[in-house]
Structure of glucose-6-phosphate 1-epimerase:
Amino acid sequence: MNPSGAVCDQKVAAVEVTKDRNGIDQIVLRNPRGASARVSLFGGQVLSWRTDQGEELLFTSSKAIFKPPNPVRGGIPICFPQFGNRGALEQHGFARKKLWAIDYNPPPLHPNDSSGKAYVDLILRPSEEDLKIWPHSFEFRLRVSLSADGNLTLLSRIRNINSKPFSFSIAYHTYFAISDISEVRVEGLETLDYLDNLCQKERFTEQGDTLTFESEVDRVYLSSSDVVAVFDHERKRTFMIRKEGLPDVVVWNPWEKKSKSMVDFGDEEYKQMLCVDGAAIEKSITLKPGEEWTGRLELSIVPSS
Ligand SMILES: O=P(O)(O)OC[C@H]1O[C@H](O)[C@H](O)[C@@H](O)[C@@H]1O
């Protein structure tokens, strides 16, 4: 481990700690081919994921507000312990607005989670304030890693260190950068039931073979398979989303009207983003005292015709 607590396999990868304009640490992960990822301690949020050609794969709004306590509009905000307004907490819970810490001594993981990867271990523990609004002691450990082939993995371990059970929801609210919303399609959600946030969370069944976009979409697909694909015809590439412990998939594009009502969204920028999240929302996860939940999201790209 280097003095920062960020870790890498020295032979193949590099990890660097920098500060953002607010003095908050950011960790830059690099692989030997030149792919990179950048993670902020604010929110434990991945803000950038680039190919070895330097091409950004995650969307960040040109009007994103980089000043805490606002979460950054883009990258991969973590919604925890609540998704959206499905509960008594603020929208998407508090984790995305908290300062996480580097975890210098994480409990061991499988060697496959480390070897050949650049990675950093982060931890979030509740503050006194958090405990007032959500009275459950937890440890949320997050490992963000970049593999030699440029895949980005977010591995979460959430432990109940309280004396009573608690339940939570979680989503990795992944803003993919796309060529144009009218050029993409999502596969892996066909025939699934979904809850439509645009219709008071009413339940519908997906009828199409693939999902394409012509207007605002704000849905939670239920119990999907562990692989979902976002095809971008114009860029001739496909994002592969592999997930474990995350049964649901959020699909969100605000379209023109809603994005115009958001102060941190640039004009027409809704065309260049699509959120497809690995999530556990409909059935919240319950942890008994001492229990731990593990969830994994792995993102990769493959060329397509
Ligand atoms: O603006 P935010 O709080 O970041 O939420 C952005 C979006 O997140 C999810 O996709 C919700 O389903 C949407 O209803 C919400 O608009």
In short: The chain has one domain: 7-303. The domain at 7-303 is CATH 2.70.98.10 (Beta-galactosidase; Chain A, domain 5). The first helix runs from residue 128 to 133.
